[in-house]
Design a protein that fits this description.
mainly alpha
């Protein structure tokens, strides 16, 4: 079905990234206009977005068919800013093309991610380092997990943006709101499809879907829905801005995003941050953090980590020796040596270095970092090492601590569930069960309530 302002054949397939070494051009300012009605980051006015339309979008409608700069674009352009590379149509974000390792989230073939809900055997003891609090060993990636990562949210088949827009309009019209109808649509569409629903809604009703949803929802449910409707790169940039806005800084948010994303994702986030908020991410980091933690984050936001999949065992041996001499093997700590190795080496290379370090020092590198560092720089360095060992386990741990004890850190819960839902949430759920002997769904169900709980569980796939 076609409708005014849209190409009759529908949208072009969601573009992948250019070959390694070629950077995609970031969309012009205003590709992700700050959505009207989104929680302003600190309430300041954002720079006006020029209404220049969407140049260079082969096969896209003229600006008239798009939502005005108050909303999001209907869909990212070819070469635009989808946050997760290699997205053949119908696979969702983050599925490696042809099973090749996900750039920047690489694993050696014998130690790679699960490609589905295969049962992960529970190893007797986890090799690897310690949890930040030293409670339990940090699990390494089980060899049983096969190549490829998997999200719990997949693009819907027979997708019709107009029909979905109509369902959402009916759900919000009149007295009360039919939250179940909203949950059914939002939880079962990919982020790319949600952008198209938003554009269709504006075309059909001349109203902004986000504003309408905000007027019907509140609290955690509102935060979750808004997160689901932000394009991934924009959501990461928005989260970073939010973490540094106003009094105090949410350092753990900076660590969680900057220490775990691929080079490509980080570069897109840096550009999006500049084009949407008119600010330089590196400058904001420098003014909000200090010392060795500041240096680590500045290194991270360069997006220059080596992404070669091959492991150089000789270098791993040398790096292990170098790190030992910079820490355990001397009085005091040479922090810059840790920063250099952990900020530049690929994740498979770091994993090999951790193995070489354990053999040489009779102590694992994670616990050495815990002895040599403290505070946020310790958390940042450990996050990098934990991602090298087992990225899904890192996110499983963050989810667990967002709900453990009194109260729930809802922002962390929402951010991880939303950002990983199309990448590796299947593996995160597997690791969660393995590490905590309970399912992620069970813990969410006992920690949340109402429509917020229903929507979270629908995304997690319970």
């Amino acid at each position: 079905m076609s409708y005014p302002g849209y190409p009759p054949t529908g949208y072009p397939p969601f573009p992948g990234y250019p070959p390694a070494g070629q950077e995609s051009s970031f969309p012009p300012p205003g590709q992700y206009p700050y959505p009207s009605g989104f929680p302003p980051v600190g309430g300041g006015a954002y720079p006006q977005v020029p209404s220049s339309g969407y140049p260079g979008a082969g096969g896209y409608p003229a600006p008239g068919g798009y939502p005005s700069p108050g909303g999001y674009p209907g869909a990212p352009q070819p070469g635009g800013a989808p946050s997760y590379p290699g997205v053949p149509p119908g696979q969702g974000f983050g599925v490696p093309p042809g099973g090749a390792g996900f750039p920047g989230y690489p694993q050696p073939p014998s130690q790679s991610y699960g490609g589905g809900p295969a049962q992960v055997p529970l190893p007797g003891g986890f090799p690897g380092g310690q949890y930040p609090g030293g409670q339990a060993p940090y699990p390494s990636q089980p060899a049983a997990m096969t190549q490829g990562t998997q999200g719990t949210v997949r693009p819907a088949a027979n997708f019709d943006a107009m029909r979905d827009a109509e369902i959402l309009r009916k759900a919000m019209k009149g007295f009360g709101t039919d939250e179940q109808a909203i949950v059914d649509v939002v939880a079962n569409r990919s982020n790319d499809q949600r952008q198209k629903i938003k554009a269709a809604f504006k075309t059909m009703y001349g109203k902004d879907l986000i504003k309408d949803l905000k007027s019907e929802l509140s609290g955690n449910m509102e935060e979750l829905i808004l997160a689901l409707f932000m394009p991934p790169t924009y959501y990461d940039a928005w989260s970073l801005r939010n973490a540094m806005q106003g009094a105090g800084t949410q350092e753990r948010v900076l660590i969680e995003i900057l220490c775990t994303r691929t080079n490509q994702e980080i570069r897109e986030i840096v550009r999006c941050y500049q084009s949407e908020f008119g600010r330089d991410l590196e400058k904001d980091i420098r003014s909000d953090t200090s010392g060795h933690f500041e240096r680590l984050l500045v290194s991270m936001c360069q997006g220059n980590r080596d992404e070669n999949q091959n492991v150089n065992h000789q270098m791993a041996q040398e790096d292990a020796q170098r790190l030992y001499q910079a820490g355990e093997g001397r009085l005091g700590t040479d922090e810059s040596c840790f920063n250099m190795v952990l900020a530049t080496r690929s994740f498979p290379q770091l994993k090999a270095t951790m193995e070489a370090y354990s053999r040489m020092a009779n102590r694992d590198l994670l616990s050495s970092v815990g002895r040599e560092f403290s505070g946020y720089v310790e958390s940042g360095l450990k996050t990098i090492l934990q991602c090298a060992l087992n990225r899904p386990a890192f996110f499983a741990e963050r989810l667990y601590y967002s709900m453990k004890g009194a109260g729930t850190d809802d922002s962390t819960l929402v951010r991880i569930v939303v950002t990983r839902s199309e990448i590796d949430l299947v593996q995160i759920k597997q690791m969660f069960t393995q590490m905590y002997q309970k399912t992620l769904g069970t813990m969410i169900a006992s920690d949340t309530s109402g429509d917020y709980r229903r929507l979270l569980l629908a995304i997690v796939g319970q």
